[in-house]
Amino acid sequence: MKAIIRILLAITVAVVLVGAAFLGGYGASQALQARNAAPALPAVANFTGKTPAEFQADMPVFWEAWKLVQENFYTQPIDQQKMTYGAITGMVDALGDVHTAFVDPERAAYLNSRMQGSFEGIGATIEMVNGRLTIVSPIKGSPAEQAGLQAGDVILQVDGKQIVNMDVMDAVSLIRGPKGTTVRLSVQRGSNPAFDLTITRNTIEVPEITAKMLEDDTIAYIQLSEFGEKAKPELHQALQEALAKNPRALIFDLRGNPGGYLSAAIDVASEFLESNQVVLVEKFKNGDQKLYRSNGGGLATKIPMVLLVDEGSASASEIVSAALRDYRRATIIGQNTFGKGSVQTVHSLSDESQLRVTIANFYSPKENVINHVGVKPDIQVPDPTSYERSKNIDPQLQKAIDLIKNGEIKNPADGSGMIAPPAGATGARQDLVNWIWYNLAARRVQV
Amino acid sequence: MTQLLKGFVLALLALFVCLLAFSAGFVVNQFYARQAPQSAAATGPAAPPEKFNLMWESWGLLKNEFYYDIPAKSVLVHGMIRGALAALNDPHTILVEPAPAQQEATSLQGNYGGIGAKVELRKGALVLLPFPEGPATAAGILPGDVIVKIDDQELTEQDTPDSVENKLRGDVGSTVKLTLHRIGATDLLDFTLTRAEINIPTVQYRMLDNTPFGYIQVTLESADTAKEFAAALAALKKNNPQGIVLDLRNNPGGLFPDPALEIVGQFLPNAPVVIEKYRDGTAKTYNARSDGQARDLPLVILVNGGTASAAEIIAGAFNDSGKTILIGEKTFGKGSVQGLYTLSDQSVLHLTTAKWETPSGKEIDGIGITPKIQIPLTPDDSTKGLDPQLERAVKYLETGQ
């Protein structure tokens, strides 16, 4: 609710500013145009936004470039919407913060569905490899798997449309679609001639939790892949089921987890911490601080625990890791984490595109820096080598199992408890949306 | 005194030739350089799209919330222009900010040398096209190697062929470390090159040993190339050659159109050389000059992936004539023409305004020209001093097939 008010407020301020700039900018532009007797311009239709006052001194340069492109660029037609999106992306990129980003409606829809953990499509993880859309793996039980799609297959066409060298998000939009509809794929397998597969789309559920029991049910293992909407209910259920078997210890795996919602980070940490503990400290540009505390009702506040992390554990994963470290709640094994300690607000713009703005940095309960530093494990164990990976050997997990079997995991340590909150901090909890920003084109996506 | 003067003149000359060799690629652009119409500075938007107010919506949010310091407005406006241009998906349409005056000054002081390579954009990557001779070729750099780092500094999105060529320049004798990605190689390759004075004539020629054939290599199209080429032909003709091998391999182009029109005209007087197509559908055909010194001589042309731009135009004109065969590997595929527009803050917009097609209407840009007889030159051949492409050309002249 508060987030909405914030957005509304921001939009109001923007509108007022734009309005104020309107008269000055319009007048100046008109005067200049008249003086230079410019050649006839195309009608300025549909232009509702005017240059804000603070941009006016520099904006003519932009309009010069814009106009030169419209009048002289070789390849026609020119997609003005794409150019506008590009200009916003360019402005945002010029800020120099990789996590502050403009997201066009297509990508925004994808990111939203990803955080929801379900979408309508064929159920396959894909990746662009040298411009060729390649199946990484079909999702178990999905229409893609039932239709016989295999890892390594290359999709050449979707409903007759060539997708070689296509932007991966455009390909996602083509393959996804409402449940019950069909999509025809032209598939190349190895060096065989391409063949067609027609697949009926369905709702694809992407679980965020993988849980299993190890060592004759004596150790519970739970892996969280992302801090999306399903993280809290799935973790709660997985813990209930695991703890019912009375394991001697819990291994919680956050390796490769890029983060997600801030609220989900607090919910996840709350399962392992006593009630009302500080989970993170958010610090704003103006010096304000905000504390976020655990919810209470955690299922796994007592069981000895190992946390696995690596360089792919980022953002929300680091909030949880840093809190568990500060309270000595878990023994942390693996590699130093990514080091992404900033918070983004996600604004939905008027055409369903998104603006993600870095608004704060976060710190651990003891106010340790996370941004660019990450969380250092208690016990460093290197990532599996490619040989070990191919043999399904996981030295980090093995180290955790060995320590548990030797009785060396004794946390929570005696004396763990409340850490005095920093002076001047407020305790309000705000349900902001935050997510690590990666270049999606370079990553695996699901269709 | 005269000695001193002579030295000075020589130094100047060397500097001039150096500059020429390095900037020849740029010259082709300059040829089309135009000032932005003065009115552009003052006019408002040309029909901005409906969604343009998203820009100010975004700006309002950023201004209120962004955690870090916001840079100067001019930086944001340059970012906006870059972003808008990126949406056009044309690697040659770019914004170049004026180089800081200080940097310009240092590059003009003293002996300045280079690695003997031109930098081109290919699929968004900055790649090297080494000259046939020079430190880059000597070290084993191949045409198309992608530049990842220079002196351990990664290239950024702001880098352009010009800015990278600037970085590669330096004092003669100084070293520069290049980290390159070679297509097909898993690891990055490091090269440490010693900069040398790049002072190569653009045309070299000789009679091929034990054959009745002449060999002419054109390494670059500069202002003197046409003259040098005519002189080379005249000299070879004294040996009464039965055919000519024209070597355009690793020729990155340069000045257009005069050298290309002159060279083609020696063999195919008045023949069409290239068609420049504009976006409104109009086109201009460039025809060869009429010298025709070698109109009766059989000709074979060698090309490879380092043959680009003006050199591809020459190859394309001969290829389309049907009288000359191309041997070697597919050419680079740089066939677009950029207009240069100076904006009111002195930044320069490079805008693709035309495309080149071969006389039969085949587009060059992004495609290149595929020789009729394809023969690779492997790194192994190079180290052994073998040249199967040249051998094949000789065989073709001998047998007619």
Report on the structure:
- Chain A is an alpha+beta fold and 447 residues long.
- Chain A has 3 domains: 2-39 and 48-78, no CATH class; 118-205, PDZ domain (Pdz3 Domain); 209-383 and 395-405, 2-enoyl-CoA Hydratase, Chain A, domain 1 (Alpha-Beta Complex), CATH 3.90.226.10.
- Helices cover 30% and strands 23% of the residues of chain A.
- Chain A contains 11 helices and 20 strands.
- Chain A is globular and about 75 Å long.
- The two termini of chain A are 32 Å apart.
- With 401 residues, chain B is an alpha+beta fold.
- Chain B has 2 domains: 8-33 and 98-194, Pdz3 Domain (Roll); 203-336 and 349-399, 2-enoyl-CoA Hydratase, Chain A, domain 1 (Alpha-Beta Complex), CATH 3.90.226.10.
- Chain B has 11 helices and 19 strands.
- Chain B starts with a helix and ends with a helix.
- Residues 12-46 and 101-110 of chain B have low confidence and may be disordered.
- Classes of the chains: A alpha+beta (447), B alpha+beta (401).
- Chains A and B meet through helix 1, helix 2, helix 3, strand 17 and strand 18 of A and helix 2, helix 3, strand 17 and strand 18 of B.
The dominant shape of chain A is globular
Record field, number of beta strands of chain A:
20
Helix-and-strand structural type of chain B: alpha+beta
Q: Span between N and C termini of chain A?
A: 32 Å
Most extensive interface: pair and counts? A-B, 86 and 69 residues
Number of helices of chain B: 11
Please tell me how large the radius of gyration of chain B is. Answer: 23 Å
Rounded average pLDDT of chain A = 83
